[in-house]
Automatic annotation (TrEMBL):
Organism: Amphibacillus indicireducens
InterPro entries: Spore_GerAB
Protein name stated in the entry: Endospore germination permease
Localization: Membrane
Pfam family, one: Spore_permease
Record field: transmembrane: 12-33, 39-61, 81-99, 119-135, 147-168, 219-238, 270-294, 306-326, 338-356
Amino acid sequence: MKVNSKLSTYEIFALTNIAIVMIITDTTPSLLAQNTKNAFWFVPLISFLVVLPSFLILLYLLRKYNAEHLVELLEILFGKFLGKVFAFIVFMANFLWLALDKRSYVGQIKLLYFEQSQLFSIFIILAIVCIFGAVRGIKVIGYTAKLFFPYFQISLIILIILIIPSLIPERIFPIFGSGLTEVIQEGVLKGSIFSKFTLLLMVLPAVKEPKYFYKGTLLGLMISVIQIIFFYFIYTTFFDYDSIATTPFPFHEVTQYIRLGDFFTNIETFFLIFWLLATFIRFILFLYLISWLFGAIFQINNFELLILPIGFLLMLVGLLPNNAIVTEVVYRNNLFNLLTPIIIIIPFILLIRHFFKQRTGRLS
């Protein structure tokens, strides 16, 4: 499966950041705060440390075997059949996560900005935008992300500057919230909040040189983690002890609180524009990558033809849960907990298989 257009380090960095850092704007902070209270800002750091070894193993093995992407690496180490089985598990996990994540964002749009609109209508619009963007190809997606990235970051910096006077640092106490054990446990279970990184491993054939991919993804991942922790800290010091777990959309609550005198009202619209654009780019990228993943598993060279059916199938699955609270508290929470061991275990199995091939003298 060849991709003619090639991405630069900066484009890979921008795509990685937008793909991962957007969990500062969804319901993930509230989900994490259910058990950890005001100490939820520690959770992303623990989660990152838990999954980082697995990510580094995947990057190391990709480079070692000169594999084009994740599916090829799995097939090299496990053989064609088992490799495809593991790849299909990765596909299904990401497919379910993406469907529920889309439902979460559509719920945000409806509840906060278009209350009179039907959920189905908003989902249709999002699906059409994602399909139209994804069929343009990875180069267009990367180029769009590169152009948009600076403005997105500037909007976040402006938000930080405007909200700083309203922060109360004392709200981080008690420092471990409901208890250190609870925080560590939640951090370990929610390692999958960074699971999008596995999908990004499909992008390797689309870069000019492999070193650009490794630099871009690692730098993007590190910067994203820092930003996530920092924003979660802002949420902790902005909301009081009891309200953080009951605030479904902390990012939007913060933007609606900001005022610039009597003349500049509804300033949250400014941040809404950048949030919507980042959301579109993120889901366009994921739709393209998950279609590529499916195509690689079943050896479909023209995987772009899969974008349309997979895009609408994601919408149909996302519409199945009829209760937003159940979707967030039950389905997304359980999916996070289920995905974490998959993300952690599979890379270590690959590493063991790699060492076995070395010892038996069958290293490719």
